[in-house]
UniProtKB/TrEMBL annotation:
Cofactor annotation: a divalent metal cation
SUPFAM superfamilies, A to Z: Isocitrate/Isopropylmalate dehydrogenase-like
Organism from which the protein derives: Domibacillus antri
Identification of the protein by name: 4-hydroxythreonine-4-phosphate dehydrogenase
Transmembrane segments: none
InterPro entries from the UniProt entry: PdxA_fam
Keyword Nucleotide-binding on entry: no
Gene3D superfamilies: Isopropylmalate Dehydrogenase
UniProt entry keywords in alphabetical sequence: Metal-binding, NAD, Oxidoreductase
Length: 338
């Protein structure tokens, strides 16, 4: 892949009290990362220097103020240092207001770089919601945050979990099950399906096949177990079919996900309905793509794992998978627009 095609990807280290810094650094140890992309980190130099020494990683930091200063050389980690961690207060596995606020700052900086056209894509490191809450910042996950930072309506930003040929979109995300039931209405379901279709096309599918899950047991069984399928989900599917989108359903979720992977994209109604099947298939190798915003943004498909933070045993597979995913999307878009 030529340098002109390789996308510049800003990778944030997430909550530094977790495994984010470790897996970001380890991902940059893999030479293939530089074969398919030009990566740089957004984080704190003191924390990353500490990680390099603690985990005995053969890496050196290259502090940069501008993306144009980056070397993009394997073994030399280009870093935009926000210097927002007091090491006297820092400890692995103990997220607090400082680390939560810092995670938000890293994301803001990286998204700003994307909006300014200085980077092609952004990867958000694993976060810890409790740390962000301690900082007094409203946060329900990356899709909502990226929507706010890009001026996108929050109800138009969705999460798509991706692992190889497995792709599932969340209609609702980090809300209670009770709230999710209240939110599953025709307009939102239709937006989720349309976002799934657009994302599929960005991934190179000319007309992605989209299977939509029901909300209730047996997809409502004709109204016996709930009317959301008849009143909300089916009308949403009919609405997108008018525009040529290849959507079908609603299907009972238990049997639909038993055949996971036969359709290009699946649309689930709530968090666990989406996350359980794909995490059973590929827990450590999932990318979480935010769709519906003007920024190409993804995060790793797992949390900050405070229980193993600082032990040097975290695996970078999810970061590498996410880099490869964003690189493939960016290259396809460049070729289409060239």
């Amino acid at each position: 892949m030529t340098t002109s095609v390789k996308p510049i990807i800003a990778i944030t280290v997430g909550d530094v009290s977790g495994i984010g810094p470790e897996i970001a650094l380890k991902a940059l140890l893999d030479p293939h990362t530089y074969d398919c992309s030009r990566p740089l980190l957004v984080g704190d130099a003191n924390v990353l220097s500490h990680c390099i020494a603690k985990f005995n990683l053969p890496l050196k930091l290259n502090l940069i103020n501008r993306v144009s200063d980056a070397a993009f050389s394997h073994g030399q980690v280009d870093l935009i240092d926000l210097a927002n961690i007091e090491m006297s207060r820092f400890s692995f596995g103990e997220g607090d207001a400082m680390t939560g606020s810092a995670m938000i700052d890293y994301t803001k900086k990286a998204v700003m770089l994307a909006l300014q056209g200085e980077v092609h894509a952004v990867i958000g490191g694993p976060h810890t919601k409790s740390s962000v809450e301690k900082a007094g910042i409203e946060f329900d996950g990356y899709p909502g945050l990226v929507a706010k930072l890009t001026g996108t309506k929050e109800e138009e930003a969705f999460l798509m979990l991706v692992s190889g040929n497995l792709r599932v979109v969340n209609t609702t995300l980090h809300v209670s099950l009770k709230q999710a039931l209240e939110l599953v209405k025709k307009p939102l379901v239709e937006k989720a399906i349309r976002a799934a279709d657009s994302a599929g096309k960005a991934l190179g599918m000319s007309s992605p096949s989209i299977a939509v899950a029901g909300l209730n047991p047996h997809a409502g069984e004709g109204g016996l177990f709930g009317e959301e399928e008849q009143n909300e989900i089916t009308p949403a599917i009919e609405g997108v079919l008018e525009d040529g989108i290849q959507a079908a359903g609603p299907f009972p979720a238990d049997t639909l996900f038993a055949e996971f992977g036969k359709q290009d994209i699946y649309v689930a109604m709530y968090h666990d309905q989406a996350h359980v099947p794909i995490k059973m298939k590929a827990l450590k190798n999932i990318a979480a793509l935010t769709i519906g915003t003007p920024v190409l943004f993804a995060s790793v498909g797992h949390g900050s794992a405070p229980d193993i933070a600082g032990k040097g045993i975290a695996e970078p597979a999810s970061v590498i998978q996410t880099i490869e995913l964003l690189s493939s999307i960016n290259v396809k878009n460049q070729l289409i627009n060239s």
